[in-house]
Amino acid sequence: MNTLSNVWGLLKRSATYLFVGVFTLSVVLPLLWMTLTSFKSSSEIFASPWGLPSSPHLENFSNAWKAAGIAHYFANSLIVTVATLIILLPIGAMAAYIFARYPFPGSKYLFGTFLGGMMFPQFLVIVPLFALMSNTHLIDTKTGLTIVYVAYSLPFTIFVLTGFFQTLPKDLDEAAMIDGCSHSRTFWQVMLPLARPGMIVVGIFNGIGLWNEYSLALVLANSEQNKTLPLGIANLAMVMHYSGDWGALFAGLVIVMVPVLVVYWIFREKIHETMLAGAIKG
Fold first, then answer.
1. Of 165, 166, 175, which Cα lies nearest the Cα of 196?
2. Cα 172 from Cα 163, distance rounded (Å)
3. Is 1.25.40.10 the CATH classification of the domain at 63-281?
4. Between the CA atoms of 161, 166, 168 and 172, what dihedral angle is there, to the nearest 10 degrees?
5. Residues contacting residue 140 through CB under 8 Å, at least 6 positions apart
6. 191, 122 Cβ separation under 8 angstroms
7. Are 173 and 190 in contact, with CB atoms under 8 Å apart?
8. Cβ 270 vs Cβ 200: under 8 Å
9. What CA–CA distance (Å, rounded) separates 147 from 220?
């Protein structure tokens, strides 16, 4: 029995390692191939798609950044994403704290409404949303796009942070109230700093989603002045398809990918700690 148990355990571990290895390769290899291809010329891409670049063509990045206008689209995405997070995180944290600490009549139904917003398809509201933004003169503006992004990101933010605030000991805010803190001071000076890991994780996931968001930006920001990076990459793909500068296209894709990887690498320990703490407390 011990032998069979050991063999079965070895098979399970081997299958797990094999699955993890295959999944890792399926993620890493396309990223590596795209990065190497961004340093090739267009003729070299077609002549040797899987080979190493003979010499790095750094002009691909300058062509994508300046000539194709990626710098402008990059700045737009950065402005909209940062503005959305600055507005979203405090509002989401305050709402989540109320749901977690101060339930009131109808709070469960209101919380359920926010959860329903996570499952509501975007395409069902595109037409009325476009009409609403047009009537309020916010169509094709960074301000209007930011407001819509805040509204669409709020359900996920409240859902995650409510669970995080519920895991914090109630003795902490009670002790702060006994020491003379008001409700607002307890939240801002005691509870919110303790929720910083959850805020970081929510900010990263929301930031990645906003950075890559395409459909809402396509409808609500249709001028070159306000287009975001995903729209710029789509435009770059179309332009480079006709001009034949495929190296610049792959360089543009790398430019989009690098900020996400850098942010994740900087906060990777916080993300892992928060996920592990949630799993243990759950």
1. 165
2. 17
3. no
4. 110
5. 220, 221, 222, 223, 226
6. no
7. yes
8. yes
9. 11
Dist CA 65 CA 63 (whole Å): 6
| Domains of the chain, residue spans | 2-37, 63-281
| Neighbouring residues of 99: CB distance < 8 A, sequence distance ≥ 6 | 107, 110, 111, 158, 162, 165
Burial class of residue 142, CB neighbours in 10 A (0-12, 13-18, 19+)? middle
CA quadruple 58, 268, 117, 104: dihedral sign? negative
**φ, ψ for residue 98, nearest 5 deg:** -65, -45
In the three-class reduction of DSSP (H, G, I as helix; E, B as strand; rest coil), residue 42 is classed as helix
Tokens of 179: 């020491």
- Reading the chain (282 residues) residue by residue, the pLDDT tens digits are 567 667 777 778 888 888 888 888 888 888 899 889 988 888 888 888 888 888 888 888 888 887 778 888 999 999 999 999 999 999 999 999 999 888 888 888 888 888 887 887 777 888 888 899 989 889 989 999 999 999 999 999 998 898 888 888 888 877 888 778 888 888 888 888 888 888 888 998 899 899 989 889 988 988 888 999 888 888 877 776 666 678 888 888 888 888 888 888 887 777 666 665 544 444
Q: Is 135 helix (H, G, I), strand (E, B) or coil?
A: helix
